[in-house]
Amino acid sequence: MAESAGRTGPLHYDIQYGAEVADARRDGRAIVALESTIIAHGLPRPDNLRVAREIEAAVRATGAVPATIGMLGGRLVVGLDDAELTRLAGSDTVAKLSARDLALAAASGVDGATTVAATSVVAAAAGIGVFATGGLGGVHREAAQTFDESADLVTLAGTPITVVCAGVKSILDVAATLERLETLGVAVAGYRSRRFPGFFVTDSGHDLHWSLDSPEHVAEVIRARRRHGLGGGALVVANPLPPQEQLDPALHDTTLATGLARMAEAGVTGKEVTPFLLAHFHSATAGASLAVNIRIILRNAELAGRIAVAAAEAEAAHAAEFAGAAEPTGTAG
Question: Measuring CA to CA, how many Å separate 243 from each of 199, 200, 240, 249?
Fold first, then answer.
């Protein structure tokens, strides 16, 4: 059962909350937002539903509550239950929804899976401060000619949320993406690293100015952004895979080169680029890239859960301290 919330948050989305998420909101417990495109469009069946459940389990194991976001019959749901996850995982007619598509999809009464951009704005509207995903979208190769850039970037620039990811997909122009994030004012920090991860690989080859060393450290940044009014845009926590869990870098580079060549030969452009190259990685690596993809999202979900718990504990401690300071220390004579 979902709880209807009516107009919620600064963006005034009509949201329904799953029972577990509704309870967590009422009790002030830690919540982690999760996207649904990985279920409907990112992973093959039947792996998609199994992995969706594993992602939620990884969040729960930290003490946080998972809130997978999606659209069912035009209704935005924050906290899909298992039957709803199964519905999105098994259908061929699920729309892929970016932030710009939400009103159109709602008015059309469709089932939809939310991208990073859509999940971010809905989570923020629902008051959820931490979001786990695999990798962000970014600036595409040849963007100087095509102007092809993911909506994730501009959306994150105006959305106050902490996003745990493994960088951006290595099939993109990573250097240009980092430049755009800087221009847009999106804060980026490595988790226990000053190198930006490359999704399938641990190190994209690009430095970062900031590194955060623990969930509590990230929670301190979240609190500082709120306290000083500096939280207008997203905080990206780039969480690299351990080197022993990455895709073999030599295999990655060879696969990417052949994929780009085949894409050019086939004349693939626009929104077809990413699915084409990811499918090529899956086939050319005999499924190794899929296994890495799954490891990425599970690790990010676990870290996001730990961050959300640390942030909730910090807020509770601050509230208790404030209440204690406000208590009268004596009685009038």
Answer: 12, 10, 8, 10
